[in-house]
């Protein structure tokens, strides 16, 4: 949109040289956050864990059913584990909110899947995902993000 020579803004500027062009503040904030996130190793790790949790559930309707079972047992809201999209920064809010609100049922689902898994290599992957989610720094970071993104999304 704001390309130097072929973007819409530059074409409008050719027609009217007095035109003042600026980025949308929300879009600029999203670009800045995305750029900063890519430079911080812990943020990259958190993104990897969020994507791994989504992949864990997206590959199996049985796991989704187990998650819903534990959400009902623990009287948690029935929420989907959502995917994050790089171009839609508000998708982070929904994904992290649902992850934080479902952390206990998620852990129980992982444990049940691990104990019933015959494939040893896949079991090891799920165990390492479980250990990563148990990290208090990651959990604190996810809750912090949930809080901050909640303000930005309204």
Structural notes for this entry:
The chain is mostly helical and 154 residues long. The chain has two domains: 36 residues, no CATH class; 114 residues, no CATH class. Helix content is 73%, strand content 0%. The chain has eight helices and no strands. The mean pLDDT is 88.
Give a concise summary:
This protein is mostly helical and 154 residues long. It is built from eight helices and no strands.
Highlighted features:
single chain; 154 residues; mainly alpha; 73% helix; elongated; RNaseH-like_sf
Sequence-ordered SSE layout with sheet pairings:
Blueprint: H1 8-15, H2 25-39, H3 41-58, H4 61-73, H5 90-101, H6 103-115, H7 120-134, H8 136-153
InterPro entries: RNaseH-like_sf
How many β-strand runs?
0
What class do helices, strands and sheet pairing give?
Answer: mainly alpha
The percent of residues in helical segments reads over 70%
Q: What is the terminal separation in angstroms?
A: 25 Å
Cα-based radius of gyration, to the nearest Å: 20 Å
Average pLDDT, to the nearest integer? 88
Outline type: elongated
Number of domains: 2
């Amino acid at each position: 949109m704001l390309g130097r020579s072929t973007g819409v803004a530059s074409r409008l500027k050719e027609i009217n040289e007095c035109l003042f062009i600026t980025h949308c503040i929300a879009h600029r904030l999203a670009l800045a956050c995305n750029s900063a996130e890519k430079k911080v190793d812990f943020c990259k790790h958190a993104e990897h864990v969020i994507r791994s949790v989504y992949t864990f559930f997206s590959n199996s309707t049985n796991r989704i059913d187990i998650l819903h079972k534990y959400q009902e047992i623990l009287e948690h809201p029935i929420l989907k584990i959502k995917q994050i999209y790089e171009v839609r920064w508000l998708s982070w809010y929904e994904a992290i909110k649902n992850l934080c609100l479902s952390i206990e049922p998620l852990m129980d689902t992982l444990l049940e899947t691990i104990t019933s898994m015959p494939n040893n290599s896949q079991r090891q992957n799920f165990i390492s995902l479980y250990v990563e989610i148990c990290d208090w720094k990651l959990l604190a970071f996810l809750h912090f993000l949930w809080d901050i993104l909640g303000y930005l999304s309204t």
